[in-house]
Specification:
Length: about 425
């Protein structure tokens, strides 16, 4: 009798067939209310899951809104929707898709901008997440389509400025291909997950992704400025913060990506040099351009506000965390916690390898660190299982890890040095 293997199915080895255009051609973009109603009626009368994708303008625009929505369903073909031309009002589409399963690749990237349009799935299948759970090392859409379906997708426009109008024909071709084989890929991955005995795990993960709350704004987002590690002085950090906030306000108002208003390197350079006046600021390399000369007063005002802050309002040298310290400091701060973490990581790595899946999908690294830094009062398998469930771990994750994590939490305290 054959025993299901956790190893993903090997490809056939045949050369992939280039897929350069959709089988039915590229449909016209839905950009008015009558066209939207007709497209919604076609999708509502179709059958099976609906493939969904979006195109944004990250790197070009401040917002993360969808500038194109692609859908495909058996019996309706592919639909390309311009939500900007429609003013974001996609009510007929919302009704047409109610109760259908959506197939997305890397759903967490698309669900927030779809939710802005009122589009929320009743059920979800994430092909990227399915690929990870099935043990595929490379889970990009093109890679999975090539390996599992034998087609090579057209590439080249994923990072384009999708806010551009009109959208070029080759971009629309690329966008339509993104949903051309998504349902077929879903079906193959479902069978692979069944073969490995992991479909139940995947369904739990899909539901968690579907119902996950929208991302919250980061605390002190200015600390993510590239190159800020070179800044040490609290006064200089205040200058980076002030410049970042001024840039962010401008970028938000104009709907331009912040880096296109002023690059991070300029924020760090100005904070480090501390120019005394506008001429000194404009002498810095990044500020010599015409656009920055026009904005010199804005940037100089930000620097002056930072310089005028009382010492009590200067930022701390490093961001305050509500969780444990970085793991590389544990050995000095709490050797017992460091021993627990080392044991937990070893045990979880072994479980992940035995089940052919990434260890970060087995249990979130942050949850592991928090549990090892401050273990539950009841560190038995049952107590650890309850702690993991309260933190949002799925049933399959708890079943696989609670006992091993309990043993790690009871690792003997190392002797003092």
């Amino acid at each position: 009798m054959d025993v299901p293997s956790d190893e993903p199915t090997e490809p056939t080895g045949a050369d992939p067939v280039p897929l350069v255009e959709p089988a039915d051609g590229v449909p016209p973009v839905v950009a008015d209310a009558p066209s939207l109603r007709r497209a919604a009626e076609a999708l509502a009368g179709a059958t099976g899951p609906v493939a969904v994708d979006t195109e944004r303008a990250s790197g070009y625009r401040y917002s993360q809104r969808a500038y194109l929505v692609q859908l495909r369903r058996a019996g309706a073909g592919t639909v390309l929707v311009d939500p900007i031309a429609l003013g974001g009002r996609l009510d007929p589409l919302v009704e047409a898709l109610d109760g259908t399963e959506w197939v997305l690749h890397a759903a967490s990237q698309d669900l927030p901008c779809l939710a802005e349009l009122g589009l929320r799935p009743s059920a979800l299948f994430d092909t990227e997440l399915a690929g990870r759970l099935a043990g595929f090392e490379r889970v990009a859409l093109g890679t999975l389509v090539e390996r599992l379906l034998g087609f090579r997708l057209e590439k080249g426009h994923g990072a384009a400025d999708w806010s551009r109008r009109p959208l070029p024909a080759d971009w629309l071709n690329y966008a339509a291909l993104d949903v051309e084989l998504l349902v077929e890929l879903r079906d193959v991955l479902e069978q692979e997950l069944k073969r490995q005995g992991k479909l139940g795990w995947a369904l739990e993960e899909f539901e968690a992704a579907r119902t996950a709350p929208l991302p919250r704004p980061r605390a002190e987002p200015w600390r993510r400025t590239s190159g800020i590690h070179r800044i040490r002085s609290p006064r200089q950090l205040a200058a980076v913060r002030s410049l970042w906030e001024a840039r962010d306000a401008l970028a938000r108002e104009r709907d331009i990506a912040p880096g296109r208003v002023l690059p991070d390197s300029a924020l760090v350079e100005a904070a480090s040099r501390n120019p005394a006046d506008e001429p000194a600021l404009l002498a810095l390399p990044v500020f010599r351009g015409r656009a920055q000369r026009r904005m010199a007063g804005v940037w100089m005002g930000a620097l002056q506000r930072a310089a005028a802050l009382p010492r009590t309002e200067l930022p701390e040298a490093s961001q305050q965390h509500d969780g444990p310290p970085p793991p590389n400091r544990w050995a000095d701060k709490d050797p017992a916690a460091a021993a627990r973490l080392a044991a937990a990581r070893a045990a979880l790595t072994a479980i992940a390898e035995a089940n052919t899946l990434p260890v970060e999908n087995l249990l979130l690294p942050d949850l592991v660190r928090r549990t090892c830094w401050q273990p539950p009062a009841d560190a038995t398998p049952a107590g650890v299982a309850e702690t993991l469930r309260e933190a949002g771990a799925r049933t399959w994750q708890v079943d696989l890890t609670a006992t091993a994590l309990s043993e790690a939490l009871n690792t003997p305290t190392p002797p003092e040095r």
